[in-house]
Design brief:
Elements (H helix, E strand, L loop, with lengths): L2 H14 L18 H9 L7 H5 L13 E8 L4 E7 L4 E5 L5 E8 L1 E12 L4 E6 L3 E3 L6 E3 L6 E8 L8 E8 L13 E8 L12 E7 L7 E3 L7 H9 L2
Parallel strand pairs: 1-13
Antiparallel strand pairs: 1-2, 2-10, 3-9, 4-8, 4-10, 5-6, 5-7, 5-9, 6-12, 11-12
The chain binds fe (ii) ion.
Length: 245
């Protein structure tokens, strides 16, 4: 069994009985709730999903500016989506949210700066007051990061360092549940820009962390992605075997 199959099976098992983590739930998942998936993610590498082989098929256009980000669609399921985002030098995935979704981020190669925010309250239909969490530089040895519908759901990811002279990019595995296509008619994610820092009021139970006001806006023009082919283990076989579980 390939290690990708181990990951997909574990993800399926996590989310097939994980409906208690819906957006309506007030209970936050903890590391112990997802021990099996975290353990698999800790060992998961770029090799398990053939990232470097896929990147050999991404052309470098000589005259046109290349996409800052490349996406590899790894596995789509009714309960979850698995993909790999490759960040080229200077790339930024702008500040965005994943409304109602639970996500796992595992860096596979290079270094990525992750800045995340937890929503404190909605200020209007487009504005949110968020708590600034600590920024982290993540690499392939870093533990997976969890975002929940309630905690760290707003985040920005930036290229920090490439893997090597040969592979001058950084990449992370992204698992999201429910998958994007399950929200028909609703936006799948929203983009924001920060406006101003706020002082916590007596009612804001955010301790000493800074607060920031965010305003929703359209996807920044400088952010777009191209796609690389998936060249990992046979997905059809994994999907067929999943149906028998
Ligand atoms: Fe995200």
């Amino acid at each position: 069994m390939s290690f990708l199959e181990v990951l997909i099976r574990t993800t399926f098992q996590t989310f097939s009985n994980g409906s208690k983590y819906s957006s309506a739930s007030s209970k936050l998942p903890t590391r112990t709730d997802h021990t099996n998936l975290i353990e698999v993610l800790e060992q998961f590498t770029a090799k398990d999903v053939s990232v470097h082989e896929s990147m050999m098929f991404v052309r470098k256009p000589p005259t046109v500016r290349r996409a800052p980000v490349t996406y590899i669609d790894v596995f789509d399921h009714a309960l979850f989506t698995v993909g790999v985002f490759i960040l080229h030098p200077n790339a930024v995935i702008p500040l965005h949210d994943h409304p109602g979704m639970l996500g796992f981020i595992k860096v596979l190669c290079g270094e990525i700066k992750l800045t995340s925010y937890t929503k404190l309250k909605k200020l209007s239909t487009s504005d949110h007051l968020v708590v600034c969490e600590e920024s982290q530089i993540l690499n392939s040895l870093s533990p997976p990061t969890i975002l929940t519908p309630h905690e760290r759901n707003f985040h920005q990811l930036e290229f920090a360092k490439g893997e090597s002279e040969e592979h001058q990019y950084a990449a992370f595995l992204d698992i999201l549940s429910p998958p994007y296509n399950s929200f028909s008619g609703k936006p799948e994610c929203n983009y924001y820009y920060p406006t101003k820092y706020s002082q916590p009021s007596d009612q804001d139970e955010c301790a000493s962390k800074p607060l920031l006001e965010l305003v929703k806006h359209s996807c920044p023009r400088e952010f777009w992605n191209d796609a690389a082919p998936y060249l990992g283990p046979n997905r059809k076989q994994i999907a067929e075997k999943l149906k028998k579980l």
